[in-house]
Amino acid sequence: MENVIDVNDFSFFYGDKPVLEHVSFHIAKGEIIGLLGENGSGKTTFLDSLYGFHGKQEAILILSTNPVIDNQMIKENVSYIQDTPNLLDYLTAEQYIKFICHIEKLDYDNKKEEIMRYVDLFDLSGEYQSKLIKDYSFGMKKKIQIIGELFLHKNIILIDEPTNGLDIGMIISLKKLLKQEHNTFSSTIIISSHNTQFLEDVCDRILLFNHHQIVKDIINDSSLNLETEFLNAKSMESEQAYGQG
Length: 245
Prior knowledge:
The protein has 8 helices and 9 strands. It has helices at 43-51, 72-77, 93-103, 108-121, 138-150, 168-185, 196-202, 226-244; strands at residues 3-14, 17-28, 32-36, 60-62, 78-81, 156-160, 188-192, 205-210, 213-219. This is ABC transporter ATP-binding protein.
């Protein structure tokens, strides 16, 4: 199967501090991959690097090109739903979605029926046309952020902490929406999350991050208990630290 992402011995430092060291793996077209690890383990830095926020990365190939912020191939084919919504607060949600259509060269009227299905799904119809985004709660902003990327149906979707700010009903809806996106458009989806159940319910594979590295590549099957896998990795880390002490 064709790989859309190849990572070969990738390392990243903030000054002298290592964030990721010697990371290597491959993602095939149409896979849904989860990233699991504690805060500071490098998951967000890796997603940022994939999108090109940290400059050109020679050790990463995404769609056969090195990521960098002005790479047109990445702009046209990759969506990034970041942990904290970065929206245009002085617009209404409808104006914001129209703006997205404008910069993506899409006709809003042609997409409106589909967009409104998302708006209804996320229970935003009452505020969609009238309320400024600056007056939205964090969770409502998160919903608009998700809608503003998913209706574009890009080939690769990067998502950082998708469940932050969402209640249980919205989390269930988002899981269904991501599976629908994958099944309909063969999207490759990479999700960083602390929500182990969300990753188990959605992903084909989970990459376990620890101490700046990927310590395990886990196939998701009926026997998987992701919490146990994570705790086992932590236990092995503690044993190794004790042995060195």
